[in-house]
Amino acid sequence: MKRTVHLFKIISSLIIACAVIVILRQYAYAEEDYSYISDTDKLIDSLYSEAGADELIFALPDSARGFLDNLYINDFKPESAENLSAENVISAILNVFRESIIEPIKILICIIGIIILTALFDTLKSSDMSAGLEQTLSFVSVLCMSAVLSPAVLSLITNLTETISVCSDFMMIYVPVISLLIISGGNPVSGGMFYSTMIYMCSAVLRVVSEVIVPFLRCISSVAVITNITDKVSLSGVNEMLRKAVRILLTFCMSVFTAFLTMRSVISVSQDSLSNRAVKFAISNFVPLVGGALSDAYQTVVSCTAVLRSGVGVIAIAAIFAVFLPAVAKCLIWQFTLMLGTAVCDVFSNGRLSSMLSSISSVISIICSILLCTMVMYIISTAIILIVGG
User: Fold this and answer.
1) CA distance linking residue 187 with residue 274, whole number of Å
2) Which of 197, 332, 309, 340 is CA-nearest to residue 257?
3) Per-residue pLDDT for 105 more than 70?
């Protein structure tokens, strides 16, 4: 009998303990998943609007916003970055290439027509044709090819300046926003360094491209036509020198900027880490009664700012890519078009037109390199501050 009563007491105690544990667990679960997360979302939304991040989407051109719409990105909030997927990115890139391929196909037809007509006249010429008349035929074919390709090359050079100008304008709006988020997250040195470096870089890149590189490109384009008009004047050495000068300038600027930004970021993050620990220690130990709570609240704000900064940074990288993609796609398609034209020239043994198309293709290659280098510099600068800043 006593054993039965004792066993009954043990079972009753276990049942009561289990009930208490279940009740407390449900309460803690509800508190964590609703009130705390709701407060965190409100804090992130408040920081998002106060930093001015809600205006970033309107600083982009229509083509970039259309590209982001295809990725299901309508703003710079962190949850929008979750919509990125490889399938959507590939589909959006293919749409851009499809929109850029129509004009080069028309020009390719004209190029092939000029090559065929030149080959036809060269076949029909009589054996006693004077050298002057043969030179005139070659001169006319080069001029016709130049008339077809010059507007396209000039359009690509203009598009280069416009693309870099648009991206610089976007960066002028984006940099203060991300710098404010970095400072709000307890990294004032990193935020100030990033702001000053990027503002100077945006203005410097635009100035170098418009005042130095664009005149170089126009000179190279002119030399590419002139050197193929006659055999008596050969400017291929000058053309090659100008191309090498542009490539060396791009390599030097990109290397110096990347190294400078990386070193400054590492140093500034170390300083911010020390000051951040000092602030939390001071709040915890020198504020009476509520020091621990204030320290936890400070850490919550820092964490929310880090989440917001990462989301804005990732979408900004996608936006920079969207700004440069149409111009890069046009350059790549034009290069492929001129490669096909060169192949047709080789079939008909027209070395002069083949050399001209190759020279113009090298000019477009330089334009594409400038676009890619500028895009990579902007993307690397954003990635460095996100990775190093935590």
Assistant:
1) 10
2) 197
3) yes
Other beta carbons within 10 Å of 291:
16
**Residue showing tokens 């027509």:** 113
For residue 130, is it left (φ>0), alpha (ψ between -120 and 50) or beta? Answer: beta
Tokens 């693309």 correspond to 163
pLDDT above 90 as % of the chain: 6
Burial of 227: CB neighbours in 10 Å, binned 0-12, 13-18, 19+? buried
**pLDDT for the residue 281:** 52
Is the pLDDT score of 270 beyond 60? yes
